[in-house]
């Protein structure tokens, strides 16, 4: 029962580590109720990119432990030790590959031009917004993180009628 519990715990840890996101439509709790710096800009171009997955070691450890446990149950004591070591190595390689693939994200590289003429490139996960050349956008910087969002539409002020 202890081996099964350990295996399930490690599998759950790997699954939870894949839940991290950089989606621009999701605000982290620590960023809520914080003032951000805003800059007006215009989109020059936008292209899809892939953000490489993480290799924190959690997948390798989980895979290694799972492989070792599974391999150690094969045959007698000596065979179980040998197969357990081989299972640990194979499990670590597979676990690392699974972690990397499951944490990969589709993203956009958005190149913008600020009002002062400077150009910037921002890579962010794909959200609900699309960005085309010429679109007015706002760069929202909180701490060291910057995201791009569509500029809000401002309604023109009502014309003065001259009546008092």
What's a concise summary of this model?
It contains three helices and five strands; from the N terminus they run αβααββββ.
Percent range of helical residues:
25-40%
How many beta strands in the DSSP annotation?
Answer: 5
Strand coverage percent? 25-35%
The Rg value, from CA coordinates, equals: 25 Å
Query: Pairing-aware structural class of the strands and helices?
Result: alpha+beta
The structural domain count equals: 2
Poorly predicted ranges (pLDDT <50, ≥5 residues)? 12-21
Strand order across the largest sheet: 3-2-1-4-5
Signal peptide: 1-20
Domain Glycine zipper 2TM: 59-99
InterPro entries: Gly_zipper_2TM_dom (IPR008816)
Keywords: Signal
Would you kindly provide a written description of the structure presented here, covering whatever features stand out?
This protein is an alpha+beta fold and about 160 residues long. The chain folds into two domains: about 1-20 and about 55-105; about 35-50 and about 105-150, OB fold (Dihydrolipoamide Acetyltransferase, E2P), CATH 2.40.50. The chain is about 35% helix and about 25% strand. It has three helices and five strands. β4 (about 135-140) and β5 form a beta hairpin. The model is unreliable at about 10-20 (pLDDT under 50). Pfam families: Rick_17kDa_Anti. This is Glycine zipper 2TM domain-containing protein. Keywords: Signal.
